[in-house]
Design a protein that fits this description.
By secondary structure, the protein is mainly α. It has a single domain (9-94), classed as Chorismate mutase (Chorismate Mutase Domain, subunit A, Up-down Bundle), CATH 1.20.59.10. The chain is built from three helices and no strands. It has helices at residues 9-44, 51-64, 71-94. Helix 1 (9-44) packs across helix 3 and helix 2 (51-64) packs antiparallel against helix 3 (71-94). It is elongated, with a radius of gyration of 17 Å. The N and C termini lie far apart (47 Å). The model has no long low-confidence stretch (mean pLDDT 91).
């Protein structure tokens, strides 16, 4: 049985609010995972930035894309997410937390 579809503008906006909250939770969870990966790489003496891995992320995103967003749109979004994780790491280093 599928969930009931929103009927009004307010219903649609409420649905988007729920999705936004879920996105925030998932983005923060992803950021915490990225921080752990950076810590692991630092302990192992590996470079933090890995362009091949970032390309693999974009390839995976494209493969999972069922639209309506284009691959290019999703690549912009994910490039932004990955950039924010790099900025977070730089801030952690500046704060002495990394």
């Amino acid at each position: 049985m599928s969930a009931p579809q929103p009927e009004s503008l307010d219903d649609w906006r409420a649905r988007i609010d729920v999705l936004n909250t879920q996105l925030v939770r998932l983005l923060n969870e992803r950021a915490r995972c990225a921080e752990r990966i950076v810590a692991f790489k630092q302990r192992a003496g590996l470079p933090v930035f890995d362009s091949q891995r970032e390309q693999a992320v974009l390839d995976t995103v494209s493969a999972a894309n069922e639209g309506p967003l284009s691959d290019e749109a999703l690549h912009r979004i994910f490039n932004s997410i990955m950039e924010e994780h790099r900025l977070l790491q730089e801030q952690r280093k500046a704060d002495g937390l990394s």
